[in-house]
């Protein structure tokens, strides 16, 4: 599993409390504890929790599927995550799983707890919902992402027209009810939805991609901002579907973590002025 790609969740001052909550439920550990950034590891998977402020609110356009191997495990996670949360789809037996539920926890993070076969080592799988003007574009998104990153593939695809199941909203038969794709060894699920949810992708849940060098940084940046994507600041961008990515050279983390606080601060200040991260300019600032 690739730990160079991981989700980043945006908080307004309660990242640490949330980190402790998830580590407690999933037997995880906190690997970085700073006022702005908390990194945690759940089942060997990295997640970043960012105290960014009140600007963005997390929503169900990106949820986290937890694949469980026993009914007891489903129940345990469900009960703990429901503390202060609310059910979006009740924990029940469905045609796709004997025990499944979808909930929003007290930190506005949405989880799908699923009894199924874990086909790989990745236990928590981000799930992207394509809706509104993106409804019907899940396939196009998978094609963009898998063509951008190495070691990528599109896996199983279930279209609405394939299933016999009736849906509360009339979905186009060619649209994707559920699909699996992998970018550089990291698994995602995705789906189309014609339901008029009152939310969409925003910066509150983004994917961080750690890069080895400038060439890789440039390639991901160019590919993901092309054709209607938008550049933002400090390595952030939105692709043409409005989904947020952070393209972060490993060198940036190394220089920002320098034991000399003055040097580290110069690097942070240089980074704050950048859209795409330019490693050479960070190094100049570091040595200035």
TrEMBL record:
Superkingdom classification of source: Bacteria
Domain PhnB-like: from-to ranges: 4-113, 122-248
Record-linked Gene3D superfamilies: 2,3-Dihydroxybiphenyl 1,2-Dioxygenase, domain 1, 3.30.720.100, 3.30.720.110
Keywords on record: Methyltransferase, Transferase, Ubiquinone
GO molecular function terms attached to this record: methyltransferase activity
Gene Ontology terms describing biological process: methylation
InterPro entries documented for this protein: Glyas_Bleomycin-R_OHBP_Dase, PhnB-like
Record's protein name: Glyoxalase superfamily enzyme, possibly 3-demethylubiquinone-9 3-methyltransferase
Species of origin: Chryseobacterium takakiae
Species lineage: Bacteria, Pseudomonadati, Bacteroidota, Flavobacteriia, Flavobacteriales
